[in-house]
Amino acid sequence: MFALLKQQEEREAQQRELIRQAVAASKVPLPDDLAQTVIELNNRYARAILRDHAGYPIAERRDSYLTSLAIMEQCLQDLLVAICVFERSALSKESNYFAPGGEDESGRTERRIQKELFATANAAASLVDHGRRVHKLQPLPGYNAKRAECFGSDGLHEFVIGLRVILHHLQAVEPGWLIEGSSSATFVIDKDVLQRIVGAHANGLGANLTAIRAYVEASPEHVDLRTVFLDYRARVAAFNGWMKKELEAESLVALRDYDALHKRKSAADQRMFWKAMTGNWLRNWKVPPDPHAHLPKYLSQPQLDEVYELPRNSKEQVDLVIRYMDKNDIVDDVLRADAYELFARSPSPQSEPLPASELS
């Protein structure tokens, strides 16, 4: 028996290897029969085989780039929020920030700003690298021109990347707080401090030195971190919004096919799971689970209100529930028929559910 099982496993492994070779050699999009063969495999094997799909290399870099972008956006948000929290505390009449004994709070705030600045500068450099890796593998038309258009030529981008080099390798700059009357409080780095650091570490700033120096020279006496990074966030959003749209282009046939295969595989696996669940409930349970009891887990209150405006357990009601829940198009005719039966066999309620508007 063990020998037979081993032979069967070897045959299946050989078949998977033939499928992998066919995927690797195929033009994109994959022929329908080959695509369906991959989709019907166990998820672990299907994903391994799809690494030989022509769209996998760009998909891998695209996904890393999008992760890096999300981290950068979070770092920017965290830095700006930290400054706003400081401002609210510093300007509050009830604040003990500057009172005797407030040193611990002020120290924690200053360390937090320093940490968020460090994280943001590093995330910016990481995003640049991930974006370049995508463009190197899949050149995007107009990439360099769009980058220049969005980031400008005033040296802000180079200054942010330079901060990463300074903070990570050269000097732990400590921003200081600046309060202007009763309306504004922020964190700044003094211009003369930046000039001194740039001058002392010119050799470490590489090709960006000229642009960094120009940006610092054109800056006010106090370089406001909030102003700097609000501006930089807008530029990041403009360029990366364009880049994400380019990566969604239909002209990237290999990437589109790779994504479509993963989507189809995910839908097929979910469809198989739900067919197993509904089949078990309807054929093996004397009383199947009541779907009405679970709808609040999946539908918003306005959606529930709309669902319960329709006749209970009617096909129209079930179809609306499916339309709201089935975000990945997994419901086929068989699953829809099971859903009709599952709702039809649900127990009668003690009282008809009412829309929230009537409950209020």
Care to describe what's here?
The chain has helices spanning 2-25, 32-39, 43-49, 56-91, 103-137, 143-151, 156-170, 191-200, 209-217, 225-247, 253-284, 291-298, 301-307, 315-325, 333-344, 356-359; strands spanning 176-180, 184-190, 222-224. The longest helix has 36 residues, at 56-91. The mean pLDDT is 91. It has 360 residues and is mostly helical. Strands 1-2-3 form a three-stranded antiparallel beta sheet. Helix content is 69%, strand content 4%.
Number of strands: 3
Strand order of the largest sheet: 1-2-3
Number of helices: 16
- What is the helix/strand order? HHHHHHHEEHHEHHHHHHH
What is the 3D shape? extended
Helix content estimate: 55-70%
Quick structural overview:
With about 350 residues, the protein is mainly alpha-helical. The chain has 16 helices and three strands.
List the helices and strands and how they pair.
Elements lengths: L1 H24 L6 H8 L3 H7 L6 H36 L11 H35 L5 H9 L4 H15 L5 E5 L3 E7 H10 L8 H9 L4 E3 H23 L5 H32 L6 H8 L2 H7 L7 H11 L7 H12 L11 H4 L1
Antiparallel strand pairs: 1-2, 2-3
Provide keyphrases for this structure:
mainly alpha; 360 residues; 4% strand; 16 helices; 3 strands
